[in-house]
Amino acid sequence: MELHNGAAETTPMTHTPSAPPPFGRALCAMVTPFTEGGALDLDGAGLLARRLVGAGCDGLVLSGTTGESPTTSDTEKAELVAAVREAVGDRATVVAGVGTFDTRHTVELARSAEKAGADGVLVVSPYYSRPPQDALEAHFREVADASGLPVMLYDIPGRTGTRIEPETLIRLAEHPRIVAVKDCSYDFLGAQKVIARTRLAYYAGCDEHNLALYAVGGAGYVSTVANVVPGPLRAVLDLFDAGDTRGAAALQRRATELIEAMMASGLPGTVTAKGLLSALGLPAGPVRAPLRPADRETVDGLRAAYERLVA
């Protein structure tokens, strides 16, 4: 290490995970397009999936929070996986959201996703019933045992009412098919603890954490905002990997306005993503009740923030 003007010269940081991320780095939590009449729009889903993959997404997560999974039927979930699989082929991983508040139902959905062509499953903590940690652990193990697909656990206590505690995650990491976590815990210390003690691939589930989690060994992100700006978000990771940490940080900061507008405006990300996608002429369609569409003023604000980011 040489010294110049009293400062230490260091080698730029790059991202060197211990193993390749199991589902890729840049994943989009894709909306589920519907027709104006509210039916599943499989053609639109295929078009959107191809656009996202072409713009830098190397994985698509279907039927998650952004995909309105509580309002889609089991048949629709399987049809969506099959349509997206056909649309993107082997150019991207397809992860199917299968989590419910019922272990038996979740097992059925995992097996259905495997038959439909998914590469993995996203399993959220059972919501409403708020199981204790030992029951939560048993739930995840039973789902992981039910199919041959790798599992991404989804920790989002703000919606489910139950945290997957770090010690529980550390134990679950011993299961050969539990390989990843989508982290919406807002516990950065807890996330770092699990990253340090396991081989679980940690994906940021909150877009403001994309770069920060990646910098401490995370695998990448599962992003709602990527529905509309897949390229810039992917570029943040690419810049960091190339050693341009200042450039990565600058681009992450530039994205902050749109991230805040989409994810912290008091509306669900599904509503803002579909409103902006529709304004851009991209497949989305309406949201299903009980959600309601974004109003014109909100959409105009989203469009302005989007244009400032991509300008």
From TrEMBL:
<feature type="active site" description="Proton donor/acceptor">
    <location>
        <position position="154"/>
    </location>
</feature>
<dbReference type="InterPro" id="IPR005263">
    <property type="entry name" value="DapA"/>
</dbReference>
<feature type="region of interest" description="Disordered">
    <location>
        <begin position="1"/>
        <end position="20"/>
    </location>
</feature>
<feature type="active site" description="Schiff-base intermediate with substrate">
    <location>
        <position position="182"/>
    </location>
</feature>
<dbReference type="InterPro" id="IPR020625">
    <property type="entry name" value="Schiff_base-form_aldolases_AS"/>
</dbReference>
<dbReference type="GO" id="GO:0005829">
    <property type="term" value="C:cytosol"/>
</dbReference>
<comment type="pathway">
    <text>Amino-acid biosynthesis; L-lysine biosynthesis via DAP pathway; (S)-tetrahydrodipicolinate from L-aspartate: step 3/4.</text>
</comment>
<feature type="site" description="Part of a proton relay during catalysis">
    <location>
        <position position="128"/>
    </location>
</feature>
<dbReference type="GO" id="GO:0008840">
    <property type="term" value="F:4-hydroxy-tetrahydrodipicolinate synthase activity"/>
</dbReference>
<dbReference type="GO" id="GO:0019877">
    <property type="term" value="P:diaminopimelate biosynthetic process"/>
</dbReference>
<dbReference type="GO" id="GO:0009089">
    <property type="term" value="P:lysine biosynthetic process via diaminopimelate"/>
</dbReference>
<dbReference type="InterPro" id="IPR002220">
    <property type="entry name" value="DapA-like"/>
</dbReference>
<protein>
    <recommendedName>
        <fullName>4-hydroxy-tetrahydrodipicolinate synthase</fullName>
        <ecNumber>4.3.3.7</ecNumber>
    </recommendedName>
</protein>
<feature type="binding site">
    <location>
        <position position="66"/>
    </location>
    <ligand>
        <name>pyruvate</name>
    </ligand>
</feature>
<feature type="binding site">
    <location>
        <position position="222"/>
    </location>
    <ligand>
        <name>pyruvate</name>
    </ligand>
</feature>
<keyword id="KW-0704">Schiff base</keyword>
<dbReference type="Pfam" id="PF00701">
    <property type="entry name" value="DHDPS"/>
</dbReference>
<keyword id="KW-0456">Lyase</keyword>
<keyword id="KW-0457">Lysine biosynthesis</keyword>
<feature type="site" description="Part of a proton relay during catalysis">
    <location>
        <position position="65"/>
    </location>
</feature>
<dbReference type="InterPro" id="IPR020624">
    <property type="entry name" value="Schiff_base-form_aldolases_CS"/>
</dbReference>
<comment type="function">
    <text>Catalyzes the condensation of (S)-aspartate-beta-semialdehyde [(S)-ASA] and pyruvate to 4-hydroxy-tetrahydrodipicolinate (HTPA).</text>
</comment>
<comment type="similarity">
    <text>Belongs to the DapA family.</text>
</comment>
<dbReference type="InterPro" id="IPR013785">
    <property type="entry name" value="Aldolase_TIM"/>
</dbReference>
<keyword id="KW-0028">Amino-acid biosynthesis</keyword>
<keyword id="KW-0220">Diaminopimelate biosynthesis</keyword>
<keyword id="KW-0963">Cytoplasm</keyword>
<comment type="subunit">
    <text>Homotetramer; dimer of dimers.</text>
</comment>
